[in-house]
Amino acid sequence: MSKTIEEINEKIKKGEVLVLNAEEIIDYVAEKGVKKTAKEVDVVTTATFSPMCSSGAFLNFGHADPPIKMTKVWLNDVPAYTGLAAVDAFIGAAEPSETEGLNYGGAHVIEDLISGKPVKLRAIAYGTDCYPRREIETYITKDTINQAYMFNPRNSSQNYNVATNSSSKTIYTYMGKLLPNFGNATYATAGQLSPLINDPYYRTIGIGTRIFLAGSDGYVSWYGTQHNPGKERLSNNIPLSSGGTLAVIGNLKDMSSKYLRACTFRGYGVSIFIGIGIPIPVLDEEMVEFLKIKNSEIYTEIIDYSVQRRNKPSYGKVNYEQLRSGKIKINGKTVQTGSISSYFIALEISNLLKNKIKTGNFYLTNFIAPIPLDEKYSDLSILSKEEL
Amino acid sequence: MIKRKLVLSFPENIVTKPITYKLVKEFNLGFNILRAEITPNMEGKMLIELKGDKTQIEEAIKYLTDTGVTVQEAAKDIIIDKNLCIDCGVCTSICITQALTLDSKTHKLKFDKEKCILCELCLDSCPLSAIKVNI
User: Could you tell me the sign of the dihedral formed by the alpha carbons of B53, B55, B58, B64, in that order?
Assistant: First the structure.
């Protein structure tokens, strides 16, 4: 007994679709069993709301008069990359402001644009016959700018490690503030709600899949940078740390600042919380087996961030139920845990997407090409030309 | 019998005086020192919970002020800006007394002021800068 996306979309159209979020499916399967669930449930909505540094937006400012071929551009004093055509630029979320340091950055520019706030645009140029203007200073909003779309090279990591600190001083990392002597531990994903945890071999999520992206209808545009599907997996198919990743795209003008929030990790830098929701079609019993996964079955590794090397020591595995209880044991010591990912907002997104599907405002898609399962991750070696 | 949580700041010239002793002896107050520190430039700070008769607490505060101690009400000092907070809960890992916790049912951040000892470790742990100190 299996279903197709077309059959599910037909049910959405008729208002007969049964959608659950990735939390509700757990109890549903426990009560009704895999077979019945595969038959009855059509879609499971997954979501995450986590910091995702590898995000940004392509902007096209439209042409000024006389026109300019921008060679350097700043948005609220945050540099954007404009080594593209005359008025195209990419603003990276992690780019710090030249005047406010780490308190304001590309992420804040993106959030300000989404909330409709005016943003100061400044650009300089060397001037050409076709683009004579040498400088420009003006204000833009999301309504006045010609085009703005997010293109995030790496979002929605499949899983992520836990960070702790064995050293004798406090350290400030992208996993947050880590107190000395295993003073705390932080983790980063929504666990059982997380998209790629629920579709571990990318059977339904692929290039072209329509998703919820920060309040808009976005799309999976590619597999993400550092996509590493070959990462060690436990018997339940879940990689112990990052594993698969997604590159996603969507219209910034349709986004909501409720589901996209700029942030600063002290001593590390600017990042951006992005809300992503992905519907997973319950095609057959195999999908139910994947979707029924719960926090107590999802493991990740505890990593010592005080070691300033690529390979950091591990203090063993822990599951998300333990992490969410607020306390874990590291080397026999009780350590308080905290998440840098908001489960509350992830759950809200999963419910929002559920309602969009139930009310016929969101249809599922067949992907155009699959996310690769054989992509290899390579570290960077420092080599001379001869050593290559 | 009432309870009041206060932050006492001692300037350098009175850091060595037995002030808390006087609070017990002269004003008949019970107290619980939640936190105390002397900073390198020799200013002393103490977070103290006083228990006792309302008028005697007020008299004690007057005595402290007259001696040169700066007295601040502690109850309102740490503020979580609910408009900024996204309920991630990363601050809960930093909070030694577990004044900050994530509600396991609602997944929302809870702040129990009673448990807060104003250590301020949480302040720079919030990626949204939603935790502020109100001085």
Answer: negative
